[in-house]
């Protein structure tokens, strides 16, 4: 799998795939995974999205097969944006459809606000815009559990809230193992910064056509909370999926991938 060297010498692993017809000229999509995940989080999207788009799936700095980060790494959300812009430059991609899940959502919002010319469209799935407001007291208990029991134990402990009551046991186990593979130093350092995340001031600066997707009984933020910030993104749309998962990209991959292609066709076709 390809590896890209970042400005500070860290490496970023990524997947760059397209299954369109040989004569097609597909546009590109950049898919950003959530906390304690990797580009594998988007596997369920690939049969749908990969048929129509060139799909780039990076493992965010520190996660997946990218270089682990030390616990005292100076995490910066603008720094993560710079990582992804550097990857696009490396691949020669001027503009992309940007798709982001969970905590990658605010990173994508920041990227779209800072670099409007690089984003054709924006799709945000089960995302948050203010870390402390959304996580509240959960953050402290998460940090304590990770320190005492490790990342995989924490992932398994919190997975029902993430995937919802209807997720089959095999899915819960599979996602627990995927997230549990995150290096402890990366996870402790990164998750400590999440409460500082706040992109509410960037929402009005997003110029790209934007689709926000949530569930009608999300354990992260309710529909009305999501609608309250979504309406500040000019011309954006809100899609509400039945269910109690807050990781809607994981629990409804085919539905969300199809909705993404439909949105691109309606609002961002070249």
UniProtKB/TrEMBL annotation:
GO MF annotations, alphabetized: hydrolase activity
Annotated GO CC locations: membrane
Ranges where the AB hydrolase-1 domain occurs: 30-248
Keyword flag DNA-binding: no
InterPro entries per record: AB_hydrolase_1, AB_hydrolase_fold, AB_hydrolase_sf
Keywords, ordered alphabetically: Hydrolase
PANTHER family xrefs: HYDROLASE, PUTATIVE (AFU_ORTHOLOGUE AFUA_2G14860)-RELATED, MONOACYLGLYCEROL LIPASE
Protein name: Alpha/beta hydrolase
């Amino acid at each position: 799998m390809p590896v890209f060297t970042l400005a500070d010498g860290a490496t970023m692993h990524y997947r760059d795939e397209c299954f369109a017809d040989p004569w097609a000229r597909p546009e590109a999509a950049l898919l950003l995974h959530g906390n304690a995940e990797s580009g594998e989080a988007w596997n369920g999207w690939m049969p749908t999205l990969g048929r129509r788009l060139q799909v780039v799936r990076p493992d965010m700095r520190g996660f997946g097969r990218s270089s682990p980060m030390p616990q005292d790494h100076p995490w910066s959300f603008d720094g993560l944006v710079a990582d992804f812009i550097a990857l696009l430059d490396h691949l020669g991609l001027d503009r992309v459809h940007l798709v982001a899940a969970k905590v990658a959502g605010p990173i994508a919002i920041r990227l779209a606000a800072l670099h409007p010319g690089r984003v054709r469209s924006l799709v945000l799935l089960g995302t948050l815009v203010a870390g402390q407001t959304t996580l509240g007291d959960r953050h402290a208990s998460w940090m304590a559990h990770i320190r005492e029991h490790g990342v995989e134990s924490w992932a398994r402990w919190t997975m029902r809230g993430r995937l919802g009551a209807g997720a089959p046991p095999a899915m819960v186990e599979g996602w627990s193992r995927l997230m549990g593979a995150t290096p402890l130093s990366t996870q402790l350092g990164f998750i400590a910064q999440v409460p500082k995340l706040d992109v509410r001031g960037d929402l009005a600066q997003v110029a790209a056509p934007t689709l926000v997707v949530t569930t009608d009984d999300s354990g992260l933020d309710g529909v009305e909370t999501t609608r309250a910030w979504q309406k500040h993104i000019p011309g954006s749309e809100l899609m509400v999926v039945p269910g109690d998962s807050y990781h809607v990209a994981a629990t409804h991959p085919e539905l969300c991938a199809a909705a993404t292609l439909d949105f691109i066709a309606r609002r961002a076709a070249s």
